[in-house]
Write a structure and sequence with these properties.
Shape: globular
Distance between the termini: 59 Å
Number of strands: 23
Helix content: 25-40%
Amino acid sequence: MSNRASANGTVRLTMAQAIVRYMVNQFTIIDGEEVPLFAGVFGIFGHGNVTCLAEALERVQDQLPTWRGQNEQSMALAAIAYAKAKKRRQIMVATSSVGPGATNMVTAAGVAHANRLPVLLLSGDTYVNRLPDPVLQQVEHFGDPSITVNDSFRAVTRYWDRITHPAQIIQSLPAAVATMLDPADCGPAFLGLPQDTQELAYDYPEAFFERKVWTIARPRPSRDQVEAAVEILKTAKNPFIIAGGGVRYSGAEAAVADFAKRRGIPMAETIAGKGGVVHDNPAYAGPMGIEGTEAARQLAETADVVIAIGTRLQDFTTGSWTTFPKDARFININAARFDAQKHRAQAVVGDALEAITEIDAQLGDWSAPSARMAQAQKWYAEWNDFLDKGQAPTNQAVPSYAQVIGVVNRMARPEDVMVTAAGGLPGETIKNWRCKAPHTYDCEFGYSCMGYEVAGGWGHAMAMAGSKGTPIVMVGDGSYMMMNSDIHSSVISGHKMIVIVCDNGGYAVINRLQTNTGGAGFNNLLKDCRVKDPANVRHVDFAKHAEAMGAYARHCDSLADLEAAMEWAQTTDATTVISIASDAYTWTDGGADWYVGVPEVSPRESVQAARKGQEEFRKKQRIGV
């Protein structure tokens, strides 16, 4: 039976067909141009989505391209990276079958939720009518047959629904889109699609499929909140700005940097905010927090008023709330009320660009004392000298992360985007990577998800199609071993990235935490694991492995080799992987400390000493929620 429109203004479609038709008629505006809101679909098909949803997607593949993933988690991570590259203006879809395909995406949903990024997740579900139960891949709950594994998404999504009748998408789909585009509530949306509901036909109103252009709201803050913030700021002698990811998603990077420069307020960035300004911006003091610069730490420790813009103030930003004076006052500018009111702050609930513009307009001729910016620039110059020394070549047999990053950074073009995630590389790239152009850095550290790196690089490569730049993925051997198959995805889809694999022989940064808190090296570095021959652990040949997936690849034995390999990688026509050994014990110092659990009792004197150190450190914490 065809799905032609009827005389009464309806069109008969299956639920799956209706979802797809709705998606292809949603648009948004980027830089003044109307573009599809849903840029594409990542899919791995199984019995839960191949017979109905795939049938509908196949017919619109020229309008809504479907890309085959290798792993449900990694393809959803690629979708999330795409949304981040597009500053939350465009959305990707990830679809899986029921069962393990669905639960593979739960981790990715957590990444999107923690980082406030949109992705639409569509998973097959068990039968509403329950006639064939228990079906393949169904997990039975004896006391509640309505529960399926898809309920696990409730904890990691902003919007969740199970479509048990085809008419429900008329309400649910627009609600899901509105959630994903809301500056305050932005995050992943999930729809469970039972197999027997996907197949059902329904007479949908034609109006449901009308072309719609979505715009993202810029909520203006309350006048009272702006006035209160201005009064606090005018009292400041040593103000300090922390710019988060919300500044980038608002498009407020230039406005915040200009405000900081004109008002004489030094600024730092969070991990999500890094890349909002270039490394040598005159008001910039580097990234803030545990993985930040000494300059930013010193500015935080001497601040009397902190303006936190578009940040959720995660512990890696605040040094577990030990970095600021206990009497420092906070002004939190955030689209989300939940974030704006944290730590007894003066909340300014609204869009970052709108809020900073209104605060600026009411400040009159106020500016911070000139000594504040002069001190910040002195501290930042000292930090850059420290970086230069750490990145300089030495005679050590195995280069440090800082030295490797220094070479890659130097060889990168201004338009190239650095992508990394969990492990040691976040801290090392946050400190050592010097952004040459805005919006060229992505470190997934909200959820700190090992495996994001390569998948995220694929998503960025899609988002950057047609631009001058290339994603440069920096990944440790541990994360590479967890999730690397999207090297092959990028090769067969034609989305080039450059991948630098730093092999330091295991989970080196966690080994560092383990030993720095008094523990013995155990089960992190390969040599400390239960292996056949600890003295001769056979390492993976990452170059050969990447070549087996169709990539160009080269192993480097020195920093000079790495420089030559980077020059070569910029000339290739497909994904290129470069591997190099890196030292597991050399780290870039600086930044704030961290609240971690250390045993109250232990026979190890080193643990006892670490515990005392933690107790002293925690005395510096501010009181707040």
